[in-house]
Specification:
The chain is an all-alpha fold. Helices cover 72% and strands 0% of the residues.
C-alpha cells in the first residue's frame, strides 16, 4: 500500500532507498515537458539541488505564468483539494508546499508503476 512521505526530504530519501530516484526525475521531466514547461533535471542532480530547482521553478510559474502553473498541476494531477488547503499569503512558502505536492504525486506514479 502506498503511504506518502511526510516531507520532501523523506520522499527523496525513500526514492533513493528504493532505487527509484532516477525514475522520479524522468517522470518529472516527462510531465513538465507535457505541460510545455520544459525543465530538464539531469539524472545526476542531487536530491537537495532537485528540491531547490523545483521550488524556484514553481515560484516563477506562480509569479509570472499563472495559467501555465495551473496547467502543470492539471497535467501532473495534483489534488485540487490539497492545493486549496494551502495558505497563499506567502509566495515562497506556498511554492515550497506546491513543489512538495508535485513531488509527492510524481513519486506516487513512479512507486505504483514499479510495484504493479
Amino acid at each position: 500500500m502506498f503511504i506518502a512521505p511526510k516531507n520532501t526530504d523523506l520522499l527523496l530519501t525513500e526514492a533513493e532507498g528504493e532505487n527509484l530516484y532516477l525514475k522520479l526525475i524522468e517522470q518529472m521531466n516527462k510531465d513538465f515537458n507535457l505541460a510545455n514547461e520544459g525543465i530538464d533535471f539531469p539524472l545526476s542532480i542531487s536530491p537537495d539541488e532537485l528540491k531547490i530547482q523545483l521550488h524556484e521553478k514553481i515560484y516563477r510559474l506562480i509569479q509570472y505564468k499563472f495559467a501555465e502553473y495551473l496547467n502543470l498541476l492539471y497535467i501532473i494531477d495534483v489534488s485540487e483539494e490539497q492545493i486549496k488547503k494551502l495558505d497563499g499569503s506567502d509566495l515562497v512558502i506556498l511554492s515550497e508546499q506546491v513543489a512538495f505536492l508535485i513531488l509527492k504525486r510524481e513519486w506516487q506514479k513512479v512507486w505504483f508503476r514499479n510495484k504493479y
